[in-house]
Amino acid sequence: MWERIRDFPEQLYFNYSVYIDRFVDWLSQAFGWFFDIVRDIILTMFDGVEFVLGITPWWLYIVLLFIAGWRLYNVKTGITLAFLLFLIGVSGLWSEMIYTLAIIFISVFISFLIGLPTGILMSKSSRLENILKPILDGMQTLPSFVYLIPALMLLGIGRVPAVFATTIYAVPPLIRLTFLGIKNVDEQVIEAGISFGSTPMQMLFKIELPQALSTIAAGLNQTTMMAVAMVVISSMIGARGIGQEVLIAIRQVQVGDGFVAGLAIVFVAIILDRLLQGVTNRFDQTMETE
Amino acid sequence: MKNFIKKLSIVLVGIALAFTVAACREEEDVITLAEGDWESQVFHNRVIGFIIEHGYGQEWEDVQADTPVVVQSLRTGDIDINSEMWTDNVASYQDDLEAGYYHEIATNFDDNFQGLWVPGYIQDEYEIYDVFDLIEHKDMFHSDEVEEGKGIIYGGPSGWAVTDFLNNKFDNEEDYGDLIDAFEFYPIESTATLNTTLVDAYNNNEAWVGYHWTPTWPHAEMDLRLLDDPFDYDFDEGTGNIPPTPVTVVVTDSFEERHPDIFDFLSNYETDADITSEALVIMDEHDDAMEAAKEWLRDNEDIWTPMVPEDVADRVRGALQ
Q: B68–A159: do the CB atoms touch at under 8 Å?
């Protein structure tokens, strides 16, 4: 008797997976041309970014990183960041890092193109805000393999679905923080803007966005960190780079190699994080002095 | 504040109680079966699980894990049984056996095929029978992930012995120079991804060539043909056709002592690739793997009843009714 009450009634089972299957089939048939275009665009971007990153000699990166760390923080930070990058090279992962960086940069760039306008629209419309918030939660919590397999069907293997998956995972913080930054602009500033008769566009570009800039920059930083976190998952769908080295090492139970590759990912994250934060701090300082 | 402490202490006591109850349950000896991400092992585990649950009255559970995790857990005893140990893919296998971490007690099957496969419609239309026949049709196998003008040969995960073998083949300029110029070997780090490329190509009647192995569900569902390699087998040179891998049943070191009767049953657990392939077709017809295993047990008494004593077989039969 208790089991009757306790267990979920089988009569209510309803399997809606067939409808999702049909939807994906329909998508690949009706929009195949669209995904081909997306594929070509991402591949062209990737080739361009990888070419630029790959043609630069390794020591130039280290020198530039040292100068950046020194200018943004101090000599010590400059040396540390340059040393971390040097360690990646010592580990024999330089070309893998270039590949991984290209995926991260393109994903962050696409996230920026999508995230910034979406965040702005969201701050202007409370209806859109109510719709988007649960979707953003879903994008960050849905296990990535669930959408990776359909992404593979629509986009093929390799770099393209990797950029797709990374973008889905990485874009929410940028949208959220753009939204927050604009929402939190001081009311008095806005009222001042209105009383001076500024149009909505002037308001956005002259008042709201500049005020929200440091919050948006924080969002961009988080987005970049999320993109780094997807490096290993990307390699499960045919992307190369440091993530693949991690997978190979753990599959062969090579603890040492796994850590070497894993730490390289950590170093990439630290370097990108410090650079972005340094630039953000600079923005804040110049804003304050103005 | 007082009120808050009261509430907090009630919650804490509740949590402590829940843990105590959970801990008590944990003490029962539940047999753990390792489950990789391929279908045939899901099937064998259901058959073994059903027999030990209903024939021997022993609780069991499956643990889904990648092969290295399974091997490590067998060493520590966190996993009791691996019904499909693909021995060639576990580098430490012989050493582990010698060290006595776990024991090989039966060969589940050793008549499986591994190698490079193409869909039947590709073989028939373009007459591709061995790996060198691929060369003149390289353009239709092209993918954006490889160099312009080259075809792609999909590979299994890096770290599998067979992937090393195929890598050796694509390093062997002397014997395979033309193939290497025409094709790039591209290991895929997840079998789910590998299968997706295959299914996607097959459903769209597109060209596909890559590593695969039997017994797996794609071979039960699709017409796939193994490509021949005219050379003699040599692992280091990467030449020839891959010989079958022994797929064994292994148990952790303490298992024989704890469950001697189930140990005896598993020592008899020997099937073959055909049996497994047929079972995979049954699996495909059922949403629930357990239902498929039951149907198989009902229809194939001649295979499994000799593995167990008469009284165990009777109890299993009774549970199948």
A: no
Task: Say whether A236 and B91 touch across the interface (CB within 8 A).
Answer: no
C-alpha B260: how far from chain center: 26
Residues of chain B contacting residue A158, judged by C-beta atoms under 8 Å apart: 143-145
* Facing residue for A238 by CB, picked from B91, B92, B188: B188
Q: What is the pLDDT of residues A241-282, one digit of tens each?
A: 999 999 888 877 788 999 999 999 999 999 999 999 998 888
Shortest distance between the Cα of A238 and any Cα of chain B, in A, equals 5
User: Other CB atoms closer than 10 Å to residue A20's CB: what's the count?
Assistant: 11
Bridge partner list, B117: B210, B226
> Between residues B130 and A289, which one has the greater pLDDT?
B130
Q: Residues B131, B77: one domain?
A: no
What stretches of chain B show up as alpha helix (H) in DSSP? Answer: 2-26, 39-54, 67-76, 93-99, 120-126, 161-169, 173-182, 191-203, 217-221, 255-258, 260-267, 273-285, 289-299, 301-304, 310-320
Q: Of the candidates A43, A244, A252, which has its C-beta nearest B189's C-beta? A: A244
Residue B3 belongs to a domain:
no
Chain B touched by A43 (CB under 8 Å): yes
| Statement: residue A89 has pLDDT above 80 | yes
- The reply to whether CATH 1.10.3720.10 applies to domain A2-289 is yes
- Closest C-alpha to B186, from B150, B222, B217, B236: B150
Residues B251 and B301 in one domain: yes
| Inter-CA distances, A80 with A77, B66, B186, Å | 5, 37, 36
